[in-house]
Amino acid sequence: MDMIKDYLRSCCGRRNNTENNTPETDPLIRQSTRNSQETNNPISRMPSNVSRQQTHSSNLLSSTSAYPPEQQAQSSQNSDIERINQLSQDDNVPEHLRNIMTELYEVSKNTDIESQGGGAAYTSRKFKNGTLDKHEVKYHGHVKDEAERVGNLVHELTHRSVVDKFNTDYVNYTNPPENEVEEAKFSSNGERMTNEGKRQDQRKVQSVDNAIRVKLTSLQKLTLEDKNLSKEQKVKVRDKLTYGIQNAHKEFDTVINQISVWLHYWNITPDKSQLAQKLKEIAAQNHMERESRTRIVEAIDEQPNLNWATQKIT
């Protein structure tokens, strides 16, 4: 229990580094990434890439392309959005994933989407005089690997759908908050909510976050045991689940959908993988709850096994 308490204090509700005024570090923009810099808990001892949406030089578009970078990015962005649409209509795609792709393609129509040429992917809201004006998504559209690009875009569009369906400042459940949620405050130009992170913290319900972490750590166990996955794939999935564990109040749906896309691209199907089967069940339930605009998570006595996050993968 003490370890869980330490974990909750150190891993949740941290503010962004404001050293540089960029989308990755701007405190006025809600991101889908957080640094894991705390100590004395199993999650924080994970490699630093666990809690950031990393890009690698081997994935960057070649600088020798015949097209300028901005044209490459726009082409990639359009094809990735269309790829989501194609997945929503492909009978070879599992039904639960088709439904999710349909949901995300619909929200993409009312979202300003840009390919991020490096740095953190993120989703944000822009306001006009304190009234919601538009939704913005920056994603890793510059990487070559389609599974990585589409998975990252799905992750960010899931944030976009969550805030639309639940209207809880990106928190992915609708349980009544344990604390009073303060009124929204805005920047001097009225475009950004300055206390969004604080409002998210105020909406958190410890028992709900615990139940979500139990689900995610159980998926980590299945990941390590899955013989269909390569060592590299196990690391990738386990680390993404760790990111969800660190931010259970707002990264549950996102990591579930992103990993679901990866498994589809890797041809890891529910009929041959317990991980894929369990992920299918959770993803389908999450989708139905988003569509119903309600998610009330029941408290459970079980505690998450945080050791799976650091266990050696062979």
Protein architecture, described:
With about 325 residues, this protein is mainly alpha-helical. It has one domain. The chain contains 9 helices and 3 strands. A 3-stranded mixed β-sheet has the order 1-3-2. A hairpin with a 2-residue loop joins β2 (about 120-130) and β3. The chain starts with a helix and ends in a 22-residue tail after the last helix. The relative contact order is 0.15. The model is unreliable at about 5-70 (pLDDT under 50).
Beta-strand residue percentage: 5-15%
The total count of helices amounts to 9
Taken in chain order, the helices and strands follow as: HHHEEEHHHHHH
Q: What's the shape?
A: globular
Oligomeric composition of the shown chains: single chain
**Which range best describes the helical content: under 10%, 10-25%, 25-40%, 40-55%, 55-70% or over 70%?**
40-55%
- Structural class given helices, strands, pairing? mainly alpha
Q: How many β-strand runs?
A: 3
Strands side by side in the biggest sheet: 1-3-2
Q: C-alpha Rg, in Å?
A: 19 Å
Largest sheet: 3 strands, mixed
Average pLDDT, to the nearest integer? 83
Give the termini separation: 29 Å
In the predicted model, the low-confidence regions spanning at least 5 consecutive residues are 7-69
The domain count comes to: 1
Region (Disordered): 13-80
Biased composition (Polar residues): 30-80
